[in-house]
Amino acid sequence: MLLIKKILVPLIKRARLKKVNIDARFIKERKLGQGSMSEVWRVKDKLSGRVVALKILDLEKTARLEARFEGLAKPCEGEVAIKLRHPHIVRTLEHGITTNNEQYLVMEYVNGVSLTLPVALQNELMQSHRLTFIVEIGEGLDYFHKQGWIHRDLCPRNILVDRQNSIKLIDFGLVVPNTPPFRAPGNRTGTASYMAPELIKRMPTDQRIDVYSYAVTCYEMYTKQLPHGVDPTLTLDMIVQHINQSPTDIRELVPDIDDQVASTIMTGLAAKPEDRWDSVGAMLHRLRGAKERLEPESEYEYVDDEEAGDDDEYEYEYEDDDGEWEYEDE
Ligand SMILES: Nc1ncnc2c1ncn2[C@@H]1O[C@H](COP(=O)(O)OP(=O)(O)OP(=O)(O)O)[C@@H](O)[C@H]1O
């Protein structure tokens, strides 16, 4: 059933998509990012009058990625992103194919910075919001897992902090369904320093690879360094040499860290998946508990999954509930 919902239905929908002439429809205002797979622009959408973020995927790189999952019919980024409705996940409004055959996504424009910046600066924003950010990332990821997906590329680069200091997860280009064919050993796609040992060693994987990446991200948010102290520019093969060693305990680097937070992160970094948190929800539960104890005065609002799914503020402006325009401008 999950296979039909996650793979066959999106394939049929993709075949039905109409092509959009990007240059005719959008006015490019400025480039927001040059990812490894795409260009992202802040644009004005002439059709809706809105300022949005437009992600255009590189044709050849996307084809190469899809070829790595040949026979598995990996859903494309837009098919995954369009269904996500959570306050800590960027809202995708539409996806489709350009007249140049590139895949594109129209997203809410997030006015903010990548989490890599406060991680590197360890500034007042990071000091005062660290636990809130950690809980919000966990909420977004926990929701994501409950929709039946594995992210495979969670890292500070793929997390934005907006002007309200709220977390938004972005980039679902490497996402796969959490189903047996995609959990089988194979592709080592992701960002090397955040990859779980079982993924690097080409062993079977599941949602616990994201638990590991989440724990690496939390570790970095506290220490500004990676758990094995390795250089983030190292290649996968070089990282293989480090993954069998235990990571430096976070308490050695941050002596005043709360013990519950420290032990929760360290369990998330366990080399063997069976020694790690089984789910992001379990890890989040411990981190949220620590936050409530340490920051009882904080006005943080707990995000309920069910309520999160009701966030339909954009719905009225877009034509159908898949967010796919039936508009064609050749
Ligand atoms: N909705 C958005 N609002 C504002 N900026 C965005 C948005 N989406 C993406 N960006 C910016 O564009 C950059 C690249 O986006 P994204 O990570 O989705 O591309 P990518 O090609 O998949 O990148 P990579 O694979 O290198 O992580 C982001 O780091 C961010 O700075």
Overview of this structure, please?
38% of the residues lie in helices and 16% in strands. It is globular and about 55 Å long. It is an alpha+beta fold. It contains 14 helices and 11 strands. The strands form 3 sheets. Strands 1-5-6-4-3-2 form a 6-stranded mixed sheet. Strands 7-9-10 form a 3-stranded antiparallel sheet. The chain has a two-stranded antiparallel ribbon with strand order 8-11. It folds into 2 domains: 107 residues, Phosphorylase Kinase, domain 1; 196 residues, Transferase(Phosphotransferase) domain 1 (Transferase(Phosphotransferase), domain 1, Orthogonal Bundle). Bound molecules: adenosine-5'-triphosphate (ATP). Its EC number is 2.7.11.1. InterPro entries: Kinase-like_dom_sf, Prot_kinase_dom, Protein_kinase_ATP_BS.
H-E order: HEHEEEHHEEEHHEEEEHHHHHHHH
Shape: globular
Indicate the structural class: alpha+beta
Strand element count: 11
Descriptive labels:
14 helices, Transferase(Phosphotransferase), domain 1, six-stranded mixed beta sheet, alpha+beta, binds adenosine-5'-triphosphate, disordered C terminus, three-stranded antiparallel beta sheet, 330 residues, globular, Phosphorylase Kinase, domain 1
Summary, kept brief:
The chain is an alpha+beta fold and 330 residues long. The protein has 14 helices and eleven strands. It folds into two domains: 107 residues, Phosphorylase Kinase, domain 1 (2-Layer Sandwich); 196 residues, Orthogonal Bundle (Transferase(Phosphotransferase), domain 1), CATH 1.10.510.
Topology record:
Layout: H1 2-16, E1 19-20, H2 22-25, E2 26-34, E3 38-45, E4 51-57, H3 59-68, H4 77-81, E5 92-98, E6 103-108, E7 112-114, H5 116-121, H6 124-146, E8 149-150, E9 159-162, E10 167-169, E11 176-177, H7 180-183, H8 197-200, H9 208-223, H10 236-240, H11 250-253, H12 259-268, H13 280-294, H14 305-308
Helix pairs in contact: 6-9, 6-13, 9-12, 12-13
Bound molecules: adenosine-5'-triphosphate (ATP).
